[in-house]
Write a structure and sequence with these properties.
The complex is a heterodimer of chains A (about 120) and B (about 230). Chain A is mainly α and about 120 residues long. In chain A, about 50% of the residues lie in helices and about 0% in strands. Chain B has one domain: Arp2/3 complex 21 kDa subunit ARPC3 (Orthogonal Bundle). Classes of the chains: A mainly alpha (about 120), B mainly alpha (about 230). At the A-B interface, helix 1, helix 2 and helix 3 of A face helix 1, helix 2, strand 1, strand 2 and helix 4 of B.
């Protein structure tokens, strides 16, 4: 990689791997401890009386709805596994979309090289 | 901040879906111009990381939580177009796989949490950088400010949608005040998380930060400065 100091400590592949591991750790170990209180919008909806306008989610009965994996009885484990599934699927889908976008619209003359 | 089905009427939701689709289409074209071989996995990582951190609801005031939206963070790391796409993928996965955010509200949510935060946040980031020195620590501070403001912009976007097609009986002024009030607090959390993450990436791989491309300094020096910022 041109323009990058040879003192650079972390290779690109290692950076991506480290980032993914951190995301998986946060999703599996930390997310079960996240606050279960309603978020800002839901709290406003409750306080200002329009929470009951919410309709059931069309996919509310799917095996991972609500960040809980059907068949996993332990609440923390269920949320953690759902988080891991989400991180993996999001990485795959986002990476796939970016790959398709890049291949479809490759205009190398106008692309901005990294580390330049 | 994920809008469920029902909060906003069908016509407004459908209109938002059309606007969001147009916006995502424009970001796809822009993303095709800037994505190189390395930004493909990097964007995948940014999306996966935003998904993970969005699960981490933190308490703000009694009985209320907030979580990272991540649009400003993604924009600073991979640029506003690719960043908006990253959050769009996160929102689609959440709605389809985890029933989080209504299907009819997906356009609204993409508008508020991907497009407004990434492009609005990045505009604030550029403005903040303009009045600061060209240093890595300024990039960290500007990212934090941009992230905080982006949450309030997102809350205002919801308020506008509520004004157009809200199904509730509360007045727009009431909802606006409540939304902005709580999201200023959530924005502080968003700003802190965003600054920490941008600081950490600047400390390890400053060359991977889109919003710091103009810093014509030795990358190893940047890493040292960024380490001080994080510490």
């Amino acid at each position: 990689m041109k323009g990058v100091s040879r003192r650079m400590r972390l290779g690109f592949g290692a950076f991506i791997a480290a980032g993914l591991i951190l995301a998986l750790v946060l999703a599996f170990f930390v997310s079960p401890s996240a606050s279960g209180d309603p978020d800002g919008l839901n709290k406003v909806a409750i306080d200002k009386g329009f929470a009951d306008t919410e309709k059931d989610h069309a996919l509310g009965d799917t095996p991972t709805a609500g960040y809980e994996v059907r068949g996993v009885d332990d609440d923390r484990l269920s949320t953690g596994v759902a988080g891991v599934i989400g991180v993996a699927v999001t990485f795959a889908v986002a990476g796939g979309v970016m790959l398709v976008v890049r291949r479809a619209r490759r205009t190398s003359a106008r692309s901005v090289p990294l580390g330049s | 901040m994920h809008i469920p089905d029902g909060f906003i009427d069908g016509t407004t939701s459908a209109g938002a879906a059309v606007v969001a689709a147009g916006g995502v289409g424009a970001t796809l074209r822009r993303a095709g111009e800037v994505l190189d071989e390395r930004r493909v996995p990097l964007a995948g990582l940014v999306a996966a990381f935003v998904f993970a951190v969005q699960m981490l609801n933190f308490p703000v005031v009694s009985g209320t939580s907030g979580h990272l939206l991540g649009g400003a963070l993604a924009a600073v790391l991979v640029g506003p177009a690719v960043g908006a796409l990253c959050v769009t993928v996160v929102l689609a996965v959440q709605a389809l796989l985890f029933a989080d955010g209504g299907l009819s509200a997906l356009g609204l949510n993409v508008l508020n949490m991907a497009l407004v935060t990434a492009f609005g946040g990045y505009a604030v980031f550029l403005l903040a950088r303009r009045v600061m020195s060209r240093t890595p620590s300024s990039v960290v501070a500007a990212a934090g400010i941009a992230a905080a403001v982006s949450v309030v912009l997102s809350a205002l976007a919801f308020t506008a949608e509520y004004a157009i097609g809200g199904t509730g009986t509360a007045s727009v002024a009431t909802v606006a005040g409540a939304m902005v009030g709580v999201h200023v607090l959530i924005g502080v959390g968003e700003g802190v998380i965003t600054a920490l993450v941008v600081g950490a990436v600047l400390a390890t791989r400053p060359d991977l930060v889109w919003g710091a491309r103009d810093l014509a300094i030795d990358h190893a020096d940047a890493a040292l400065v960024a380490e001080e910022v994080v510490a």
